Amino acid sequence: MSQIRKPREHNLFLKGFRAYIQFVNSSLYFHKEHVVGLENVPVNGTPIVMVSNHQNCLNDPLCVCLKLTDRRMNFLARANVFKNPLFNKALRAMGLLPAYRMGYEGLRSVTRNQETFDDAGKALTDGETVMLYPEGGHQDKRWLGTFKLGYLRIAFAAAEKMEWKEDIMILPSCNHYSNYFHARTEMLMKFGKPISLKPYYERYQQAPRETMMEINKIVHTEIKEMMLHVDDLDHYDQIDFLRECTYGKEFARKRGFNFNYLPSRLLSDQTLVAELADATKNHPEEMESIYEDTAELIEGYRKLNVRDWLFNRRPRLMRPALRGLGLLLLLPFFLISAIPTGLLFLMPKIFLKKLIKDQMFISSFNVAVSVFVTIPICLVIPVILIWIFIGFWWALGYFVAFPIMFILVWNYMKMFRKFVGTCNYVRYRNRSEVNRLRVLRNNIFNRLNSMLNK
Question: pLDDT tens digit string along 295-304?
Answer without folding.
Answer: 999 999 999 9
